[in-house]
Structures are given as C-alpha cells and as structure tokens.
Amino acid sequence: MTGGGAVKPVPPGECRQCWYHAHNSRKAHAHLGPREDCPECVDHMRNGHGSQIVPKPKSMWW
After folding, report:
1. What angle do CA 15, 59, 16 make, to 5 degrees?
2. What is the DSSP letter of 34?
3. How many Cβ atoms from other residues are within 10 Å of residue 19's Cβ?
4. Residue 15 carries which DSSP code?
5. Residue 44 has pLDDT above 70, yes or no
6. Which of 7, 24, 30, 43 has the highest CB neighbour number within 10 Å of its CB?
7. What is the pLDDT of residues 7-42, one digit of tens each?
8. Are 28 and 38 in contact (CB under 8 A)?
9. pTM for the whole thing?
C-alpha cells in the first residue's frame, strides 16, 4: 500500500464522485461539521450518477 494519501483509481462500473467521496472522504468532506450531510452526496443520491460511471470494458464472452 502506498503512503502519502494516494488516491485510489476508480474501478470500472463505479461512479467517480461516489468513489472519491467514499475513499477520500477526509478531503471530500473536510469542510463539513460533525454529523453534517455533504450537499454533493445528497444531490447525487437524489439525482443519480449521470455520466459519472466509469465504463466497463467490453466483454469478449457471447
């Protein structure tokens, strides 16, 4: 595992914003108070992922 707070790459099929906020939450949520909801996360949960999903590679199985 790398030190220094390296950002984990977003795996295929996952949402970029959700991944960033889940795995780098100290940076993403640093501006929030205790038990305060993140407005970006709340908006994302209500309105969906949009074009933020990382595409999966094409399957070669048919």
Report:
1. 10
2. T
3. 17
4. B
5. yes
6. 24
7. 678 999 999 999 988 887 678 888 899 999 999 999
8. yes
9. 0.69
